[in-house]
Every structure is written in C-alpha cells, then in structure tokens.
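Below is one protein, fold included:
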Amino acid sequence: MASKATKKEAVVSTREDLAEHIEAFLKPGGKVQQIPSGVSGQTSTSGPRQIVLSHKTS
C-alpha cells in the first residue's frame, strides 16, 4: 500500500501534468466551453435497455 507521502506526490504530479496539458491546449488558441449543468454529450440510441440479473429455470 502506498504511503501518504507517495499519494501526495502522485496528486501533485497529476495536477502539474494537467496544468501542462491545459496550457498546451490554450497556447495555440484552444478555447474552453462551459456546458450547462444537466447537458449530456450522450445521444440515446435505441431506447431503454433492460438488464437481466438472473435467469430462473423451472
């Protein structure tokens, strides 16, 4: 199991990586679009799907 210090280092590293990616995206003119709450990028395909948890046999 990772120690707390290792986890904190990983978090800092992840944040730094993310900041670098954002900077690289914005530098050539990339823009961030704010999407309203409740809007999804998923489109419904064929309607509701039912999940069968078990098959009962007689």
